[in-house]
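Self-study notes.
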Amino acid sequence: MSTAGLVSVIMPAYNRRDYIREALDSILAQTAGRHEIIVIDDGSTDGTADIVRAYGDPVACHSQPNAGIGAALNHGLLRATGEWLAFLDSDDLWLPGKTAAQLAHAESHPQTDLLFGHYEEFVSPEIPAGQLSLGERATGARPALLYGALLVRRATFARVGPFDEKLNLGHFIDWQARSRALGLTETVLPETVLRRRIHRSNTTLTRKTDYRDYLKVMKAHLDRRRAATGDR
């Protein structure tokens, strides 16, 4: 299979038996583009890998001992063969026109390095009413500077390098800061391309102690700026 125009979709997964079918189906439902779907099972114990392997081509499942999201993403990057890279968490969903809108824009605006879109959040249907709330975040579609909304050429991604595996949270914020330091351009399309699921085991809800990773990211970014300008 030719890799020209192929979109490699990397999905890290850890104990996502309840949600991963919907996530995979949302990729398979794309209205345009060719996709290879690379699921990295990060040591799941709930049968997640069995669900993924039952799909067959173009979905591939590769298992590793539990090492965290950054390591899973980097494992997927090593296996990607497509011209393009995209990412989706195993509990979130793409809208059917995500790939179509982004590839069309890339064709007409080849100078753009990173393509994003908008996203919306939703409380997972199995959660009883009132038990989880979007709170002030429930404001409809918003710009999605998130890796689940990203489309980028694999060669462009390689200029920035892999994700920082030492970060439990903030791995994409760190990567994006490095991309901006290199001067890569970003475009946020008006289309809503991503739906983020809110549920009881969201990483950002269950690993709040790892928010210190964001401080590490900010410090590293400031250190790079100082080094580039010669400031002390």
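Second protein, same conventions, sequence then structure:
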Amino acid sequence: MKQKSSSTRYLIKHVATAALLLSFGVAAAYAQSGQVNMTVSGSALACTVNLQPGTPASEYQLTGDGNLGSFTLRVISAGGAPQESTTCSGPTKLYVPVVTGAAVARFENGDILRVQLTAGDDCIDFAANQAICTRIFQIMGGTGGFNAASGGAITLTMTLMPVLADASNNPVFFAVTGSVTGSVTGTISRVPMGQGSQHQ
């Protein structure tokens, strides 16, 4: 049998080393935690889910993109009684704390991320004809690449603008623009930060 030359053996060893280093690099890219930075847009309206007695729940149907890839986001939440606030004050403003809710994000490869509401509020500005709404969530896990994700917090900040009013001229349907920021802890596999979702 013909012996392999030293140059051939060196080439094989070099290729094997490069492949090993590459595999470690890919693993690091696909199993990490870090910052979340995404934008969203969509619509909102009242829904029939009873999360808080005496308070209608709101449902947000959003789509977005960012450093975790393209996704859809469905949020359901309910507020409490209006309160005074130093951050949302004025004769034309109404501050409403948000007391309960949850959200599900579904990414383009089918992976799901589940989050639970921990805090939030709505600052309704009647003069500006819009509302600034904030929802803060804790990550509860998910499926696929988010199976091992837990902890961390993400904040959904939205601007709502009325599109349709009911017979009493109360807004019931809204256009939504906003962003999702925060951090994810635990392990996120198959969803590299900064590269978008990947099909596998």
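Instructor comment on the second fold: The chain has one domain: 34-189.
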